[in-house]
Amino acid sequence: MPVISWLLLGGHCRSCEARIPARYPLIELAVGAAFAATAIVLQGDPAELALGLVFVAMLAAITLTDLERRVIPNAILLVGALIGVGIVAGTDPSSLPERAAAAAGAGGFLLVAALIHPRGMGMGDVKLAAVMGLFLGVSVIPALFVGIALGGLVGIGLLMRYGQAARKHAVPFGPFLAVGGVVGLLAGGQMIDAYLTHFVG
User: Fold this and answer.
1) How many structural domains does the chain have?
2) SS3 state of residue 53
3) pLDDT per residue over 122-179, tens digit each?
4) Domain housing 171
């Protein structure tokens, strides 16, 4: 409904007629599609579905705040992590060691990147990667790959358009990680299997 209202009102507020940026309905549309895809893909496992929906909701909140304020709030990450661990502990406690290792690995990987290039990545991104590991387990690997690849493509595009002046165009990295997180949630296992089959097996 918000997307339809935005279209019918020509992208303006009904009461004050102020312009509403297109990113708002686009994000709402993307979040709705992510929820629908999660429900379809994970419908056979109620626990995984609940975990997936919490994960998508957390990523949506992080995307909005990072785009608007250039910050990834600790409160969102903490609440998301606590809910996620609670669901896993009650439904699949045997996977907790793997998830903890994935959280440490993902967070550590981006921590090294943040230390090497602090202007390009913040600690919020590092903590987000760690929480993604809790939710995704080993599927955080393709999630990070997708997020980093998307961020790299956008960076290359900015360089091609603005040259060295592109360094002045700060782009939040959280939304790219969020997209990678959704991909990891919905297809991470298949991506890992495909890699092992074609390049290892």
Assistant:
1) 2
2) helix
3) 899 999 999 999 999 999 999 999 999 999 898 788 778 777 665 666 788 999 999 9
4) 43-200
Amino acid letter, 194: A
How far apart are alpha carbons 95 and 21 in whole angstroms?
A: 42
CB 136 within 8 A of CB 184: yes
The first and second tokens of residue 116, run together, are: 């090497």
Backbone φ, ψ for residue 12 (5° rounding): -125, 155
CA 52 to mean position of chain CA atoms: 12
* DSSP single-letter state for residue 61: H
Task: Say yes or no: 84 and 179 in one domain.
Answer: yes
Q: Looking at the structure, tell me whether residues 129 and 140 fall in a common domain.
A: yes
User: 17-26, 82-91, 115-124: which has the highest mean pLDDT?
Assistant: 82-91
Same domain, 123 and 28: no
Same domain, yes or no, for 118 and 35? no
